[in-house]
Structures are given as C-alpha cells and as structure tokens.
C-alpha cells in the first residue's frame, strides 16, 4: 500500500468540515514524502541538501496556488503570506521539512502542511483573518548536518553567531560556507535573515508527538505547556586496563564499574529536582573493549532536559544557554554530593 492509501485507510469523510480537508492534507503529505523517501520507507532530507530544497520548492508551489505572497529569506526560510483585514503584527505558523537520517514523514511536514491547510480552508470559505497570517518553513531545525540545529529560526530572531557557524564542518567534512553555497546561500545571507520581532504577534506549531503519552491515552492532540531545554554532557572515566585473568579483584581500577555507578545515579537525578525532568545515558564507549581486558577508559554521554528551570519556572527559548550551565552544574553538584 502506498503512503497516501495508508494515510487514508479508515478515513471518515465526516472529518472533512469547515473547509479543512483530510484528503487534500493526506495528498500533500504523501507528495512531500516522495522527496527523500528511503528504501526502508523512512525520510532522508538533511538540512541544506537538495532534498530539503526540493521539499521547500514543492510547498512554495502550493503556497502560490493558494494565492499567497511567497518568499525565501537569506537563511533559506520560506514564508507564504496572507494579508489580514488590518495591518497588524503577523501570526506565524509552520515547522520544518529537514529530517534526521531515517526520520519520520510527519516530523516537520505536518506543521507546515497543517498551516497550509488552514489557508486552503479559509480560501474555500472566502474568509480573510483580521491579522496577516504567514506559513513558515524554518531551515535546518533538526541539526543533523552540523550537529547543531535551529539555524533558520536563530537567524529569524537575530541570534545567529556567524563566526561560530563558519567554523562548523558537516558529517561529510564540508565547510559551513561550502554547504550553504550548494543551496544558493552564504553566511552573510543567513545573518541577514533577521526579522523585526515586534511585527510578530504569535507563533503556533503543530508537531507530531515524540513521546507516546497522547497515543497511549487515545487522545488526538494536546497543547504543550513548555519547551524542554536539552543539555549534553560528555564524561570520561579513566582507570587502568589490565588482564582479566591476572589482576586480583582488590587491585583493579575498572573504569566501567565506576561508570556504571554513575549511570545508576543519573537515573535517580531528575526526580530530585523536577517531576518533568528526564536524563539519559545513551552512548557508551569502552576501551579497549575486549572480552578478557579490564576496561581502562569509558567515555559516556548524558542527555538531560526539562521544561522547567530548577523544577519551577517555565522556560523561554532564550534562556537555553543559561539553562545549560544551570543543568550541567546542578547535575554535577548532585552527583558529587551523592
Ligand atoms: Zn520536528
């Protein structure tokens, strides 16, 4: 069964109402999914690739068909604007069309295409909103190319650090400048994409659930109450490698045994500070990694995130860098004290 048929399987025509048309949305999702479709049925549209660009161009074509004023800024962000009845600050809605390797088909496109579906519904019903409405596709949300992310939205709010970006090298060893050139952009054009935030009234994003809470509860949608600020830590345990047969138990410096103590503590950490915090050790590198060798060194990563700061205050996106320091120091402090 193709993707469109899969989407429409079990669709009820009664769900199409007020101009919002499930069939049209499914058709657009399926068409968009053809760009970067992998052999395994996943999605491969890395930021600043020809696939991401092709997906943007397809959406731009649909935006034009809906009579929107369409524009791509210097960061490759795409905007489709519908004028409002009054000249007021704009309501933005959208998401991204880049993906991680083996990504899903809803992560990003759903937010872009549901905003477009709203415009299609309004047009069918002859409705013009009070405020201007813009559909947006932000470039490089996922960060799979440079291990960063949010390039387009950072440029939009004027927080791009060009000097830092210029030093980036992608997974193929290509420089930031070279990668941008491939899709007709430059570091200067990215930095020029800043918009006047006083002219933005609100931003709304529809996104596929990335946990399973709504799915398990059988709920079709939920409203987020905060944005999680992620922090990554890299921790190295240094012991002494030795022969597993010849080294007595009381004369060992086993780095993996120490690391496993640490991992147990990481698991116990989030509930100490917040009921919504989570922490994960997801990557472990054991050296020399032999069946009969005592581990001499272990390198591991900790991913820690929360929607609240110190378990209390809701987060704003801007406070992310401060939060990184806070979270990193809080976890280290807690671990050192325990
Ligand atoms: Zn996403």
Description:
- There is one protein chain.
- With 338 residues, the chain is an alpha+beta fold.
- It folds into 2 domains: 215 residues, Aminopeptidase, CATH 3.40.630.10; 109 residues, 2-Layer Sandwich (Alpha-Beta Plaits), CATH 3.30.70.360.
- The protein has 12 helices and 12 strands.
- Strands 1-2-4-3-5 form a 5-stranded mixed beta sheet. A 3-stranded antiparallel beta sheet has the order 6-10-8.
- A hairpin with a 5-residue loop joins strand 1 and strand 2.
- Helix 2 packs antiparallel against helix 4.
- The chain is elongated and about 80 Å long.
- 29% of the residues are buried.
- About 4% of the residues have low confidence.
- Zinc ion binds next to loops.
Question: Topology of this structure?
Answer:
Blueprint lengths: L2 H6 L13 H12 L16 H16 L3 E4 L5 E5 L7 E6 L13 H16 L8 E5 L13 H6 L5 H5 L9 H6 L5 H5 L8 E5 L8 H5 L11 E10 L3 E2 L11 H14 L1 H4 L4 E10 L5 E2 L2 E10 L1 E2 L3 E2 L5 H18 L1
Parallel strand pairs: 3-4, 3-5
Antiparallel strand pairs: 1-2, 2-4, 6-10, 7-9, 8-10, 11-12
Helix pairs in contact: 2-4
The structure holds zinc ion (ZN).
Whole-Å distance between the termini? 54 Å
Number of helices: 12
Report the CATH superfamily of the largest domain: Zn peptidases
| Main sheet: strands, sense, barrel | 5 strands, mixed
Q: Helix/strand/pairing class, anyone?
A: alpha+beta
Hetero groups: zinc ion
Spans of at least 5 consecutive residues with low confidence: 313-326
* E-strand count: 12
Order of helices and strands: HHHEEEHEHHHHEHEEHHEEEEEH
